[in-house]
Each structure stands twice: as C-alpha cells, then as structure tokens.
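Re: your question from the hallway

Yes, I did run it. Sequences:
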Amino acid sequence: MSLTVVGSIAFDSVRTPFGERDRMLGGSTVHFSLAARFFTDVRVVGPVGDDFGDEELKVLEDRGVNTDDIERVEGGETFFWRAHYEYDMNIAHTDETQLNVFADFDPKLSEASKKADILFLGNIDPELQRSVRESCEAEFAGLDSMNFWLEQERRSLVAAIAGVDCLLLNDAEIRELTGEPNLARAARVAMEMGPGVIVAKRGEYGAALFTTDGFFAIPGYLLEDVQDPTGAGDSFAGGFLGYLDSRRAAGDSVLDPAILRQAMAYGSVLASFNVEDFGTDRIQTLTREEIDERLRDLQRNTRFEVESAPAK
Amino acid sequence: MSLTVVGSIAFDSVRTPFGERDRMLGGSTVHFSLAARFFTDVRVVGPVGDDFGDEELKVLEDRGVNTDDIERVEGGETFFWRAHYEYDMNIAHTDETQLNVFADFDPKLSEASKKADILFLGNIDPELQRSVRESCEAEFAGLDSMNFWLEQERRSLVAAIAGVDCLLLNDAEIRELTGEPNLARAARVAMEMGPGVIVAKRGEYGAALFTTDGFFAIPGYLLEDVQDPTGAGDSFAGGFLGYLDSRRAAGDSVLDPAILRQAMAYGSVLASFNVEDFGTDRIQTLTREEIDERLRDLQRNTRFEVESAPAK
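Structure:
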C-alpha cells in the first residue's frame, strides 16, 4: 500500500474576502499528500529551495508523509505563488508567480517511489509526467494538468494522458482539451485518449466521474464558512486516489464502480475540509473520525428515495 | 389536487450553438405547467395578445392544462423575447424584449384558480405577486423572481417573499437578495425573510434545497445533448411543486424532508428533459414512463454507499 505524488511544493500568499496570509505551505503535492495520508502511505517528489525549512518538512513528516524524495536545490528558492479571490471563489486571480527551483524541476524518484502501487502526476510539464510514468511500476496512475499546458504543449499533454489510467481536470479544462462544449461528450472524447476513468472537478459544485460504465455526479458539501479554496482540487485528488489505494491493498479492484464512487465521496469530503481554513491549516488538524462523520453527512444530504408519484 | 401558476406566456426566438428557432411557445407559466401537469391539475393565469392562436392554446389543453384564466387582450401582442446562448449555456444573452400585453398584466383569477391547493408565482412584479398570494387560499405557495426586481423593487420583493412558503431562485440571485456571498448562509438569511423552504437553482450543476432541517443537494443530470436551456428553471419548478401537490393530495405533508427531496429529484428530471430540445418540443412528447425511468437513472448516478476505508 503506497502512493507516490510528483509535482509542486510551494509558498502561497493568498488574500480572500475573509482574510489574508503570507507564505503559507502549499503546492499540489502538499495538499494532495496531507489528504491521501489518511488512507495510505504517501511519498512526495518535488523540489524546494533553501527557504524551505525543517518546520515545513515537519508538517508532512509528523503526519506520516514520506519526504525522502523532496529535493533540496542549494542556492535556490521555493516556488512562490501570490493570488487573491473575490466573492466568487471558484476563480483564482494570480498576482505573482515565481517558479524558482520549480522551473528546472527534473523529478528524481527513489526505487521506493518508483515501486509505489499508485502514482499521481501533479500539474507539471507533460514531458516530465510522461517520463515519470514510464519509470514507475504503479498499476494505476492519475494525472492533473492546467490550461497553460493545454494551450502550449497540447501534443505532449495528449501523449502523457495516453499513458495514465485516470485524468483529473477541472470541467472547463476537459472541455478545452477536447474541444467539446458538452461535459459528458468531452469526457467520452477524453476517454478515447486513453484513461478509462475521467474525473471532472467542478469547484463548489462538486465533481463528476465518467467511466465506460456511465457517469456519477456528486455535489459539493455545502459549507457556511469557506475561507480559502486554494488546494481543494489537490485535496480532492488525494482523498480520491488515497482511498482507492487503501481498497486496492485490501484486495479490491480500483475500477469497481462502487469503489470509484466511494472514492469520489472521500475526495469531496477532503476538499470540503481544505477550504474551511487558509492553506493547509484545517487539514493539518483533521482527524479520521471527522472525515467519516462528514462522509455520512454528505451521503444523507445527497440521497433521495425513489417513490413514484401517486397516479394523477 | 390543483395548482395555479401565475406569470408570463411568451413567444421566444432563441439561437444556441446547436440551432435557431423563431417565435416558439414559451414563458414561465407554459414551461411550468407542461412539467407540473404530469403530477397534478394545473391552471394557468397569464396574458396573451391577438397573435396567440388556437394552436398555442391547444398545446396546453391537449395535455390537460386548464387555460380558462389565460387572458386575451384585444388589440395587444403577446410578450416576445429574443436571446442567444454561447457554448456556456448557463448564461442567456437577451437581444430583445417586447413586454407587450405583459407590461400591463393585472392577474385576474377565477374562483377555481383562487381555490387551488398550491400556488406558483412566476417572475412578475412583486406587488402583483403579493396581491395574488393574498387573494388565494393555497396552503403552499412558491415564488420565483429575477435580478431586475431585486435591484429595482427590493422592498416590495422582500414583502412578497415574506408571504410565501417556498422561494425558488438561481443561486446568484439568492446571494444578491441577501448580500451573502456564501450560498448556505444566504439561504439561511432568505429563510429568515419568511419561507421555510429555499430552493437554489444552479443551472447545469443541479439544485440545492435548504430547510430548517438542513440541506440537500442534487447534481444536474449529465446529458450528452443540450439544445436549449430556456425554461429549464420553470420546468424544474413545475416538476417540484407538481410532485408536492400530488403527495399533498395523497395525504402527505409537503414539508416532509423525504418528500421535498423526491420533489427536487423530479424537478431535476423535468429540467433535464426541457433542455434536450428547443422550447417545449421535448416536454410536449414526454411520457410519465420516461420521467420515472430517468428518475431511477438519476438516483443510480448520484448514490454511493458508505463503506469506511480499511484501517491504514
């Protein structure tokens, strides 16, 4: 039972209508691993600079995340992102991006990371995603990306997508990738590119799952208090793939439709906790009991019985 | 068992990326009643001009909708709306609005319409909504509105809302009405205005229900073919309130949380059929069997079992 995640480690400065924080621990692998670690053993592969200290490492290590493959680039600085959100927190407005050591990131995976059962390729250059995928033994690989790669490196991205089992993108990105304005059709076209499992992330509206078996849609958990949506998609992916790995280890198939649905629900729950506070603050204090309690709550709040209307 | 709907009757000219139609039968009461009539006896109250012919009336009457209170204004023309949609069909771009006879609409309800068990106040001047509500005996009344009234006649709209049991608005409108950017909080504030049931319509993303009991969220049915979203919200309201009336007539409480959820599901199903073709074309040929089949399908595609992840 093990999961390797490759991608960014960052410092994020974020302002929302509800507050402002400077240089919080962030990045896709951080949000992902802090969610996935509730279900499986996670190994993080990503670069940091001299400004990344023991305090930051400790956030991961204290929660059982393996940091052996975090690469410290001497004389470099960690990826930095500054952004703000308006009241519509589905849209991040980027104010500053300093790629720093992330610009020259060339993932170096230990043998242990290569041997992981599940692999998650965070949003990095699709050429790197492809070469990491090829070097790994994972029996199930997921991939995230963003509009920048869709527009600049489309051919390379399509090749990377062809090598994975599961594509996790925002719904608008799936539409852009396939040129199909309708999400259900777009997911079908994406499936023809290779992955048998397509996950469309829909921000506060939840997420949708497409397989050859059909679709599954889950609304977002409706919170009264949303502080900072940064990292919600990565927390979703961490909950989703982490849960799948735990079931795989228990002898189940990760392609079982019922298990994929449960993974979607766990992903939604982890994403909902992510947004309750800035950065990783809420997820850092989260317990497994709280997760399972909210999962049952989400089920209650989305379930209806079919009782045919009385004849007119 | 009866339901009165008060609002617009229109001719709609609509262009979407998938086609274009001129002067189709439309308007909120038309979409509403063609959905609600599957569950209950519906009476339409609204104005038309000389251009509204027997052919249009027949669409309603052939499907059991009572048109006695459709008011023909001699020498007048029927409300006309022209709009187009881009690929993001959540947003209607209005190109032309001719209120015509709708501008001077003063609803005149027959005794039978006043005696209906359920009342739906479509999007009209909130002063009229309030006076209609006061003249009716309905034990449960729903109300829709739009940003125009929110911005121009806020005080009057809030008074109208205070008089109904159920508010059905787009999620953005609920946020605007209450000044609360968070939907769950906004719904709570809206509830304090009077209605115990708040329904937030979320376009292709589905809908959410708020009561003192908590929330219920249902994703939209994911269709591969969406032709024209016009009227989807009214079809939702028709399915929702029509189903509630059928259960009320069977002796159930329309405030029973389980029944409200089923009504949300029926609303979603009717809305999903509405958008499959232009105007009312799909709903005109719809059968009760198709509705119940899609309801079961929607349940299958949104349900997950809670099975706690194996211990790590």
